[in-house]
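Supplementary Text 2. Reproducibility record for the structural model of the 323-residue chain.

All settings were left at their defaults, and a single model was retained for analysis rather than an ensemble. We include the record here because the model underlies the residue-level annotations in Supplementary Table 4.
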Amino acid sequence: MQIDWKKLHGEAFNGIGCAVTGGAGFIGSHLVDALVALGADVTVIDDLSSGFRENVNPKAKLIEASVLDESIVKSALVGKKFVFHQAAKVSVPASVNDPAGYHRVNVDGTMYLLEAARKANVKRVMFAASSSAYGDSDELPKHENMPPLSKSPYAANKVAGEHLMRAYANSFEIDAVSLRYFNIFGPRQAANSPYSGVIAKFVTMLMKGERPTITGDGSATRDFTFVANAVHANLLAARHQERLNGEVFNVATGIRTSVLELALALARLVGRADLSPTFAPVRPGDVAHSQADLSRTSRMFGFKPIVDFEPGLAETVKWYVKG
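Retained model, structure tokens:
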């Protein structure tokens, strides 16, 4: 699927210095591709602990380093106008098993990045926040004025990152914004980890002739969002002409799909409708329902999804099948 980024964003990034932390990872690498297509001068900062060198666009510069490597990150940000902070440990269950390790990378690493960006005179940092901040509140759709209700160390990390964005944007000249992602999926999402996203795991199991395993009874719902929509939101936020002051914005489609519906749709797309799902106990920290209110993001940035759920799912399955 080819997205015409020039049609959407014109010359806004042509010749502009941009850095993408986690740019060898799933979302980060798609963001790098879009920035390169738009003519940006892109530097990727990634320690390759979960990203892959082959994901990095050859027109981008790769610096193999962690966000905890303060001096390296500070040097990498010199001359950059925008920083897209995608680097993080991202698994809810893994964060339950290793809360201290998650805090160090996701919270301390974010603070180190902001400090480096401030000293390098970066204009704005775009932070990859998470809808996990909403917890299991019964209120739907989720809107940004709801209080955070973290149910896992990972969610708490992301909320802490949001507060750091707000604090730096209100204390210093640097600007920042937090984009709360809702269940992003698409090509390059790792499928070989026990903590991989549900779509990646389901497709991989179906291709092996295995029945996908659903935690819970399948009634849980998610606002599954194709990766190009997250990229588009980041670019819109970077381009915004007025200060954003660390504010929070949802990034999603605004539509709920149950996990059972997802499993059945994937089975059809893979050509294995005969493989009905099995069920397992709910995991600690998981939430029951998730759906975004996009009115604030739309009002501020003019954001609306550029790829809907169904074509995004078909494109994702095609990528996994192609191998």
